[in-house]
Amino acid sequence: MSKRVEIYAHRGCSGEYPENTLAAFEASCEIGADGIELDVQLTKDGEVVVIHDERIDRTTNGIGFVKDFRYKQLKLFDAGSWFHPKYSRQMIPSLQDVLDLIKTSRPEMKVNIELKNDVLLYEGMEEKVLECIWRSGMADSVILSSFQFKSMGKIRELDNSIQTALLFEGIPSNIIEEARKVRANALHSEASFAISAAGKRVIDAGYPLRVFTVNQTEKLEALARSGVSALITDYPEMFLENKSVP
Length: 246
Ligand code: G3P
Ligand code: CA
Description:
The chain is an alpha/beta fold.
């Protein structure tokens, strides 16, 4: 029988709660997700904040770039009403807030922190993210990932033991070499990669392969058979109900 596939809540339970908010992460804890995935950007005053886009327009009632606001200003925006008015009190959390929440509520849960440094190259982001993690004492629970492979190389230079993963799209044939170059521990791919010959090579080489963003439970069986370690989904509860498959 295949090993159970872990279920990670993408941006929290973002299918049912406003993404990347404490409400979404609290729900992920309550339903018993194995992990959460979240995205981080940097404010003008260097706070690591949890938000997917470089701009705040889509998920708050404000306008502009995250990098142009101080954290104190950013916290004033409503990060929940765009999803549903009942979440109007949700704000953009800091990474520190989320790590503190997980440490208190579900310390065994994995936290996949995606550094969103592939569009804007935030100077010093790696150091700041690591400072938050070290300060929270959550180093054993986190997995850092990025589409910017160099950034994971920098993390490895700064911390020899923290878990890292390369994020990529499509079916690259040289991804194991890329992972070796920056001493990454795992790979995060789309479902099509996991069921390809290149995906099999990665799994056979011993790299945990986590797959994003899977929202159809029908895909679970084939992915589990191919040996993926985890699925990252907007609807973790739906997959957790299927926990024993296959
Ligand atoms: O971490 C995987 C996935 O979250 C990457 O895509 O755009 O949802 O951050 P995106
Ligand atoms: Ca992400």
